[in-house]
């Protein structure tokens, strides 16, 4: 029987306390993993290419910019391509959340220059460009609705006072490693323009730069270019632009981080206190072990192994629960909040969960373990 | 005959706040191999302190202290732990068995510090339990045993490593008279049949009467030595 066996047997001594400590660690790590999974999902939503910059109205997203800006922005040094994107709200089939997907009016000629990661056969690109009443869709969306090239769809407009009627699917694009990006459609900006009376208005301009080093210069140049106009602009990286949607409800990243840290620290102190209590109750026994010839290091490892076992078991339980919950959340998010449907317990999150569990176990056991190793046998036996 | 215990003017002082308290005031005695010594005396006379010194779990303030041929005052903590494991078997008043381990596992515990194989440990632990008459209680946990049985398991644990010196701190202090007799019979048997050297602290004159030699301590001094 090794010292490890004795440590594990000690855990059965007060089963209620062990179970409660284990559940505390598990619940903390469950929360930590969930928060981390959300943060990672946000990261994937960012989907961001660091050579892309978004130019939009400085007033709000709902304020549109003049079409004339397109060519002017194109002249800014380091800008290699510019494509306009107009958000089209509307209703597809019905109001159920699972039938919602992003729709954009854009320019077929420049979309793939700005988003080179979008992959679509050339013949489909040509077919889409040639037909104003057509659209392209991401493969995941196409699969979801079993669309085929040539399938017509209609979307009832709400913000815009017109419908997309029987626009025809002419292309299916894929975006490797970013399935979220495959859940949207793009149709001709000209179709939208004609429907609203050729007002020449654009929601956002997406710019592709030569290198990410050019971002500060382009952002400054774009904002400066229109600072004395009626429609001032705000330029920012695509990453910042995407995050601004999520951060409309506050600084989620900071909030999640703070909650996670607070929970882990609290649980560390709870576990440390429990381990200290448990070790203190067994001071006499440790003195007996030392009397039998066990060294300070062996008595120390007895306490550490015990604490570590609670940490690891708690971590496995917490991560396991998080795994199940995240899977369920991903399914639920598909219907109500598609951007979070990519949420998953990645190996990295498993690693973080288990690592934090091990760290809690080790650190929580360390102080009582050191105290146990330094225990003076005569003093401890006197207290028995 | 060599001496297993050799004390020469051993003093032990404790510091409590600003005060220096003298617990042992120059104790000198020897215990030969195969000896059975009972240490008697009132509370606070220094009996347990003396036993702790012999076990190497406390250090003398001054004086010579040789146990099992080793000047243990010279050993550091780690060396002392190893030395205790090889040479000392300790029997406590309240048995101090590990409650989550069976009788067998409690007895096997000191052997886990050796290089013995699992099978060898098993043979030794079972033998020790048989010697104390608990061959049929090996899978019992301490809570499933009577006080006398627990103390016999503790004795088996003390002898399983075949130590040079058995130290017993009030081994019958928590037992009824029948169990106390059984435990004393066992200690006598270990001394007479197995040649174990024993130093036993006791308040009980009947227990002391089973030893070969009785030492009386008072206020840290050896006041009387008698053959039982």
Give your account of this protein's structure:
- The complex is a heterodimer of chains A (384) and B (228).
- Chain A has 384 residues and is an alpha+beta fold.
- Chain A contains 14 helices and 11 strands.
- Chain A has helices spanning 3-10, 15-46, 69-74, 108-114, 122-130, 139-145, 189-195, 215-225, 238-246, 252-281, 283-292, 296-336, 347-373, 377-383; strands spanning 52-57, 65-66, 79-87, 103-106, 134-138, 152-155, 164-173, 185-188, 201-202, 204-209, 233-237.
- The longest helix of chain A is centred in the C-terminal third of the chain and has 41 residues, at 296-336.
- In chain B, the strands form 2 sheets. Chain B has a 6-stranded mixed sheet with strand order 6-7-8-3-9-10. In chain B, strands 2-1-4-5 form a 4-stranded antiparallel sheet, covered by helices on one side.
- In chain B, helix 4 packs across helix 5.
- The two termini of chain B are 20 Å apart.
- The chains are: A alpha+beta (384), B alpha/beta (228).
- Chain A binds chain B through residues 1-3, 6, 9-10, 12-13, 284-285, 288-296, 298, 377-378, 381, 384, and chain B through 49, 52, 55, 57-58, 77-78, 81-82, 84-86, 88, 90, 92, 94, 96, 98-101, 105, 108-110, 112-113, 157, 161.
Quick synopsis:
The complex is a heterodimer of chains A (384) and B (228). Chain A is of the alpha+beta class and 384 residues long. Chain A has helices at residues 3-10, 15-46, 69-74, 108-114, 122-130, 139-145, 189-195, 215-225, 238-246, 252-281, 283-292, 296-336, 347-373, 377-383; strands at 52-57, 65-66, 79-87, 103-106, 134-138, 152-155, 164-173, 185-188, 201-202, 204-209, 233-237.
């Amino acid at each position: 029987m090794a010292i490890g066996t004795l440590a594990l047997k000690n855990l059965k001594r007060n089963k209620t306390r062990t179970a409660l400590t284990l559940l505390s660690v598990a619940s903390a790590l469950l929360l930590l993993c969930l928060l981390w999974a959300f943060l990672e999902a946000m990261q994937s939503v960012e989907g961001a290419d660091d050579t892309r910059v978004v130019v939009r109205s400085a007033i709000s997203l709902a304020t549109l910019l003049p079409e004339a800006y397109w060519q002017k922005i194109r002249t800014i040094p380091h800008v290699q391509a510019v494509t306009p994107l107009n958000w089209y709200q509307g209703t597809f089939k019905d109001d159920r959340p699972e039938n919602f997907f992003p729709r954009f009016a854009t320019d077929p000629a420049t979309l793939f220059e700005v988003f080179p990661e979008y992959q679509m056969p050339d013949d489909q690109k040509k077919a889409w460009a040639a037909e104003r009443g057509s659209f392209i869709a991401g493969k995941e969306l196409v699969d979801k609705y079993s669309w085929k090239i040539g399938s017509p769809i209609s979307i009832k407009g709400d913000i815009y006072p017109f419908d997309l009627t029987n626009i025809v699917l002419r292309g299916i694009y894929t975006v490797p490693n970013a399935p979220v990006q495959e859940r949207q459609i793009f149709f001709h900006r000209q179709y939208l323009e004609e429907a609203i009376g050729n007002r020449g208005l654009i929601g956002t301009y997406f710019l592709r730069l030569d290198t990410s080093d050019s971002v500060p210069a382009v952002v400054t140049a774009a904002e400066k270019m229109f600072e004395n106009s009626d429609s001032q602009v705000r330029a920012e990286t695509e990453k910042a632009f995407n995050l601004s949607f999520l951060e409309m409800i506050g600084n989620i990243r900071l909030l999640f981080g703070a909650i996670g840290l607070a929970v882990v620290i609290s649980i560390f102190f709870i576990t440390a206190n429990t381990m200290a209590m448990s070790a203190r109750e067994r001071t006499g026994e440790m003195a007996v072990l030392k009397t039998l010839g066990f060294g300070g290091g062996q008595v120390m490892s007895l306490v550490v192994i015990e604490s570590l076992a609670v940490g690891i078991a708690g971590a496995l339980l917490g991560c396991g629960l998080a795994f199940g919950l995240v899977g369920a959340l991903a399914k639920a998010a598909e219907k109500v909040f598609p951007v979070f449907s990519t949420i998953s317990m990645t190996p990295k999150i498993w690693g973080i969960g288990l690592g934090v569990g091990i760290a809690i176990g080790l650190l929580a056991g360390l102080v009582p373990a050191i105290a146990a190793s330094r225990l003076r046998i005569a003093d401890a036996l006197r207290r028995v | 005959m060599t001496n297993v215990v050799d004390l020469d003017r051993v003093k032990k002082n404790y510091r409590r706040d600003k005060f220096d308290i003298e617990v042992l005031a120059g104790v000198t005695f020897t215990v030969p191999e195969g000896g059975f010594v009972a240490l008697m005396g009132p509370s606070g006379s220094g009996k347990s302190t003396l036993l702790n010194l012999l076990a190497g779990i406390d250090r003398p303030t001054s004086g010579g202290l040789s146990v099992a041929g080793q000047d243990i005052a010279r050993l550091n903590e780690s060396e002392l732990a190893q030395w205790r494991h090889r040479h000392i078997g300790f029997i406590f008043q309240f048995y101090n068995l590990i409650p989550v381990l069976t009788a067998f596992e409690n007895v096997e515990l000191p052997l886990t510090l050796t290089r013995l194989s699992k099978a060898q440990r098993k043979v030794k632990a079972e033998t020790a339990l048989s010697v104390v008459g608990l061959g049929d209680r090996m899978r019992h946990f301490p809570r499933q045993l009577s006080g006398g049985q627990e103390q016999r398991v503790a004795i088996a644990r003390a002898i399983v490593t075949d130590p040079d010196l058995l130290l017993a701190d009030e081994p019958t202090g928590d037992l009824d008279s029948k169990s106390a007799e059984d435990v004393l019979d066992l200690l006598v048997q270990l001394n007479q049949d197995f040649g174990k050297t024993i130093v036993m602290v006791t308040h009980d004159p009947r227990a002391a009467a089973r030893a070969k030699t009785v030492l009386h301590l008072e206020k840290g001094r050896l006041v009387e030595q008698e053959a039982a």
